[in-house]
Design brief:
349 residues; alpha+beta; Gyrase A, domain 2; Elongation Factor Tu (Ef-tu), domain 3; 30% strand
């Protein structure tokens, strides 16, 4: 596979924007999701719209998943890699009218949109920032009755999508045994329906959604971890975010070699760490007590946990999980308590 064309000389990629900082949610906010149902605004996400006759084929040549055969009733995870196979961004992708929409962490959205635009060349495709014109809402728990007042049908399967005047509704993986949905629609249409939704469901902190994503075992590439992971290192292959039968894309040779060379030695796990979200942050290295001289992993995503501390998705050497203790920041740092993921990992042979 040829390496992607280099950006034009003198072209600069904009710096990322800062993610919003959320206070630790009150315990009753978690309890509402777990015992009933709730919704939350999702300002931590941005939206890129791709339009034009070649939108699907252009993205197909850039992302880790198939966009040429993306139908109107389906959403997919996809990644965008550097030529070295390291993830620059992760997306939830779906068709919306004449556009392909990509939900992405807001702090990487400007840089990723700019970088992708550099490679459009002669393709009939245009990338625009759809963040300011839309609202993204997350819903979790017993929310189907409330959603039925907004959408005529509710998607049953994971990554199934339905559309309506108020936008698109995608079912995303369950977390803590609770149903979850993402609703993205025109800002005016969504805002007009929020009072009726709030009459049926409690509104909780966006930080609860970050915790639910972690409990679903679904990673999100943010600025702190850009270019740190090959997709398999954070289970993106297990989650359906990589299509190994599609054509070339940046980093494809590295991703394919990681898959087929025999053994994947690093994977993503779920853990709890003592501390607060403002000091237990993505990108922090992990160390094993028996090998203090070199890191054995890294925090991928973090969020306040209902019972205290911080729940985290962690990329780690599988051998580090066999025995001994794993610590945050240094070999004498806080000890991680590992928890089961909600899905099985492949048995490596």
């Amino acid at each position: 596979m040829n390496a992607p064309l280099a950006p034009a000389p003198g072209t600069t990629v904009p710096v990322s924007v800062a993610l919003p900082v959320f206070a630790r949610p009150a315990r009753d906010e978690f309890d509402t999701v777990l015992s009933a149902g709730a919704f939350m605004l999702l300002p931590q996400f941005g939206l890129i719209d791709v339009t034009g006759d070649d939108a699907a084929s252009f993205l197909h040549a850039q992302l880790t998943n198939d966009t040429q055969h993306l139908d109107a009733a389906t959403a997919r995870l996809a990644g965008y890699c550097s030529p070295k196979g390291r993830l620059l961004a992760s997306f939830l992708v779906w068709c919306s009218g004449e556009s392909i929409r990509m939900l992405v962490s807001k702090d990487v959205q400007p840089a990723v949109q700019k970088r992708l635009s550099m490679f459009v060349l002669r393709a009939k495709a245009k990338l625009t920032d759809g963040t300011s014109d839309t609202l993204a809402i997350g819903l979790a728990g017993d929310v189907r009755k409330a959603l039925s007042t907004v959408f005529d049908a509710i998607p049953d399967g994971v990554h199934v999508k339905v559309d309506g005047p108020a936008g698109s509704l995608v079912r995303v993986p369950d977390a803590a045994g609770r149903l979850r949905y993402v609703w993205v629609g025109p800002k005016a249409e969504v805002e007009a329906r929020l009072p009726a939704l709030e009459a049926k469901l409690k509104r909780v902190s966006p930080a609860v959604w970050d915790w639910l994503d972690i409990r679903a075992g679904e990673p999100r590439i943010t600025q702190r971890v850009v270019e740190q992971f090959v997709p398999q290192m954070i289970n993106f292959d297990v989650l359906g975010g990589v299509n190994f039968r599609k054509g070339c894309y940046p980093g494809q040779e590295v991703v394919a070699r990681s898959q087929y060379r025999g053994t994947i030695k690093r994977r993503m796990s779920l853990a709890n760490v003592p501390g607060e979200p403002d000091n237990v942050v993505p990108g922090t290295e992990l160390f094993h007590a028996d090998d203090p001289g070199q890191p054995c992993g890294m925090l991928v995503n973090t969020a306040a946990a209902p019972d205290g501390g911080v729940d985290a998705l962690v990329e780690i050497k599988l051998s580090a999980l066999d025995n001994g203790t794993v610590h945050l920041g240094a070999a004498d740092g806080p000890v991680l308590t590992f928890l089961p993921l909600p899905y099985a990992l492949p048995t490596e042979v």
